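Hi everyone, sorry if this is the wrong subforum. Our group has a chain we'd like a structural model of before ordering constructs, and none of us has done structure prediction before. Sequence below.
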Amino acid sequence: MHLSDHRLNQIDEAYVQTLGEGVLRGLSLRLLEDLKEAREWLRQNPNNSSRPPSSRAPWDRPPVGDEAAQEEAAQEAADATTPPDTRPKVKGKAGKQPGAAGVGRTQVLQAHETLRHRPSVCAACAQPVPEDARRVAYAGFQSVDLVWGDPAQPGLRLQVTDHRDHEIHCACGHCTRARPAEGFVEDPRLEPVALSEWRLVGSGLATLIVGLHLRLRLSRRRMREFLHEGPPVDLPCLHAALLAGLHAACVRLLGHRHAKTRALAVELWNDWDAIFRVLEHPEWPLTNNDAERPLRHWVIARRIMMGTRCDAGSCTLTLLASVIETYRQRGHGPWSYLAGVIADRRAGRTAASLPVAVPGL
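Answer:
Right subforum, don't worry. Here is the predicted structure as C-alpha cells:
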C-alpha cells in the first residue's frame, strides 16, 4: 500500500482540484495500485489462500441442504440441550486472551543518541519536501542494540537509540508522516511473523541472543562469564604447565607393562606436535568428522528445547542452523551477517548473499 489511512483521509475533492496535471497523474497511479491490491485481498477466500473456513461471509457458506451444514446444525442443537455441567470443556488458546489487560515496559532507558526521521517526498504530490518545511514529532520508540567492534575498537558496546518520527506539511496541503520501514515475509509458514524497524531489540542484540541460545547453549552465569572475560588469546602459554606435565608422563609411561597405557603414551609421544597444534590455531577442528559434528549440536539443542511448537518455529530453526553452519564451514563469523539481514529485512531491503569460502579451508 502506498497510501496509509492517515494519508488517504486527507485527500478529498477540494484537494484534488488544486493539483497539477503531472502530480495528479502520479497520485492516480498510486491510487490505482492500492485499489488493485485491495481488490486482490477482497477476492481471497479459504479456497485460494490460507484464510480459515470460518472467515467466509454468511452468503458464501454452504446451503442449508448441505450434509455438512446439517451435521453442524444438529451438533449445535445437541449442545443446546446438553446440561452445562456435562458439556465438554473447550480448552482456551494459550497466551494472552483478547481484551485482557496488557503489560508494558515501565523503565526509561537513557539514550546515547536520537535519530529524527522525516519524510523526504510528499506522499500525495510526490514532490521533494524542502529541508525548512514545518515538521512535528508525532510518534517515537527506543531501540537497544549491540554495536560490534572492529580491529580498531574491538569488543561489544551497548547502545540505546531514541527514534522520533516526524510529520511534514507540504506546500500542496498534504501532511506526510515518516513511518518505520517494514519487510515482507515470503514464506507462508512464517505468516504470523512481522518484520519492522519498530522494535526494542536491535539487530545486533537479536543476533547475540541467537548465538548464545542456539550455538553456545550457555546458561545465564556462563553468558555473564562470556561477556565479561572473553576467550584466552595465547593458549599454549596459558596451558604450558599442563602440557609439560602431560609430556613428562608420556615419557615416563613409554615402557609401561599395561598394554593400553603404553599404547596411549606412544601415540601421544609420536604425534605430539600434530595433536596439540590446535592450541596455536583454535579455529582448526579437533577431529575429522566435520560432517557429523554440526548435526550433533542441533540434535542436542532440539532435545534441550523439546522441539519446536509450530511449523514456523521449525522453519526458523532450520534456516538459522543452515546459515550459521554454512558461515562456519566457509570460515566466516555468522553474527555480523545475521545482524545485517535482520536490519535489512525489517526495512524491506533484500538480504545480502552469503560470502565465499576463505581460501585454504
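For your construct planning: The chain has a mean pLDDT of 81. The chain is about 40% helix and 10% strand.
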